[in-house]
Design brief:
Blueprint lengths: L29 H13 L3 H9 L5 E3 L5 H11 L9 E8 L17 E9 L6 E5 L5 E4 L2 E2 L5 E2 L2 E5 L3 H18 L5 E6 L2 H8 L3 E5 L3 E3 L4 E3 L2 E5 L1 H9 L9 H19 L2 H4 L2 H12 L2 E4 L5 H11 L7 E5 L2 E3 L7 E3 L1 H13 L3 E2 L7 E3 L33 E2 L6 E3 L4 E3 L6
Parallel strand pairs: 1-14, 2-9, 4-15, 10-22, 18-20
Antiparallel strand pairs: 2-3, 3-4, 5-8, 6-7, 9-14, 10-13, 11-12, 15-21, 16-17, 19-22
Length: about 425
């Protein structure tokens, strides 16, 4: 059986919180909202923090498990610290829930974490990485706390996007912790109602296409070249899976990273951050549709976060996708590539700058290649200038990730290739 967008409806699963159903795809548009929140922090503009706090009287919060060491750091922030010490990790989750009054309330119930982003700031506050986790990834879900003070049982393998329905935002955080080895002291949950507001507040996000995109399931119809996307069209671009790559969630993430990188560049421009009306509009669109871990919901934290990341260059903001393989026995699902993932998270933990060399199937890199100096023929080199053989120096510069870890720097100019497999 299929719903209107062409995605199959799953049979009901045995779950603790009622029936689960596959999202209709709109939740993936939450990436723009999540990234807007990230970049408000990356901008280092304190007015954004005040704007958020001024709107936050009705902000929903949730408690995560916090260690004594983390509590000491939180106390320092509350005392007026201008930045957060050491490395920083924040989980950002996009929910597909439909609330009463929502523009996208189609009568469906339940809640899945269809968007899962992990923002990691290195200990020297010079590198920012956003890791995207495919919703179709089959992973272990650990024992999670329940509202009544007990714990839900652990499960050996479930789709990642079911963790929210099992134990709320804390369960998603524990699941990603278990998968990555990174502790997650901060987390935010955002519904996709704010996507239209974010894209409209900035005046649209300009992305380029090398080929047209037409998706009969979403109605998206875009011509080659530059397209400025706002409102419902931005949602359609982020939602489309039939119009990009091989039609799978991994290709859709690649397409979304093109949008996110363009959004980062646009948000960091003076036209945006120098306009208090736009900054306030971005903050308002986010705050009205989000739940934060309680340790984030203070103006002191927002200010310290801005102070922590204010000096990060575009070249050191990277979007990467958690590496995976096709699942061996669950058609259409993915299984973690643990070896490559370990390499990625070892690099993040080391704080070294890195370069993403692999591109997603739906991505065309339009960055100009570096010029290679012409070699001088050996016979034309004067004897006194002949090179002297030396011991090879150790490699320097950013670590180059293997090509199976795909993504891009925010500084890369990339285009969507449209559909590549039919």
């Amino acid at each position: 059986m299929e719903r209107g967008n062409g995605e199959a409806i799953l049979n009901p699963l045995s779950a603790r919180h009622g029936r689960l159903r596959r999202s209709n795809g709109w939740a993936n548009a939450g990436k723009v909202l999540l990234t807007g929140v990230i970049v408000l922090a990356l901008s280092g503009i304190s007015v954004a923090a005040y704007a958020v706090w001024g709107l936050a009287s009705d902000l929903k919060t949730v408690d995560l498990v916090v260690s004594e060491e983390e509590q000491e750091a939180l106390d320092a922030v509350a005392a007026g610290s201008q930045s957060l010490d050491g490395a920083l990790t924040i989980l950002l989750v996009g929910s597909d829930s439909r609330e009463e009054g929502s523009e996208f309330n189609d009568g469906e119930t339940g809640e899945l974490n269809d968007v899962n982003l992990l923002l990691h700031i290195s200990a020297d506050h010079q590198n920012a990485t956003v890791v995207s986790f495919p919703r179709d990834l089959m992973v272990p879900i650990p024992s999670c706390p329940s509202p009544d003070g007990g714990y839900y049982s652990a499960m050996s393998e479930q789709m990642l996007n079911t963790a929210l329905s099992y134990g709320g935002l804390p369960c998603v955080a524990l699941t990603i912790e278990n998968l990555t080895g990174l502790h997650i002291p901060y987390a935010g949950l955002i519904t996709f109602d704010g996507v239209v507001g974010i894209s409209n507040a900035i005046g649209g996000v300009t992305v380029c296409l090398t080929e047209p995109i037409f998706d009969e399931y979403t109605g998206l119809d875009l011509a080659p070249g530059d397209n400025t996307l706002a409102g419902g069209v931005a949602l359609q671009f982020l939602r489309t899976r039939h119009g990009v790559g091989n039609g799978g969630d991994v290709s859709r993430i690649s397409n979304q990273q093109i949008f996110m990188s363009a959004l980062v560049r646009q948000l960091q421009s003076s036209d945006t951050l120098g306009n208090p009306v736009k900054v306030y509009g971005l903050a308002k669109a986010g705050i009205q549709n989000m739940t934060l871990s309680s340790n984030m919901a203070t103006v002191q934290f927002m200010q310290a976060l801005a102070g922590t990341v204010k000096d990060i260059d575009l070249e050191r903001i990277n979007f990467v996708q958690y590496p995976s393989f096709s699942h061996p026995y669950e058609a259409g699902r993915l299984t973690p590539d643990y070896a490559s993932a370990q390499l990625l998270f070892d690099v993040l933990a080391s704080g070294q700058p890195f370069e993403v060399t692999g591109r997603g199937e739906a991505v065309v890199d339009t960055s100009a290649p570096a010029e290679v100096p012409a070699e001088v023929p050996a016979e034309d080199v004067p004897a006194e200038e002949a090179p002297v053989e030396e011991t090879e120096a150790p490699p320097s510069g950013p670590v180059k990730l293997p090509e199976n870890i795909t993504g891009q720097s925010a500084a890369n100019q990339t285009c969507s290739a449209g559909r590549t497999t039919y």
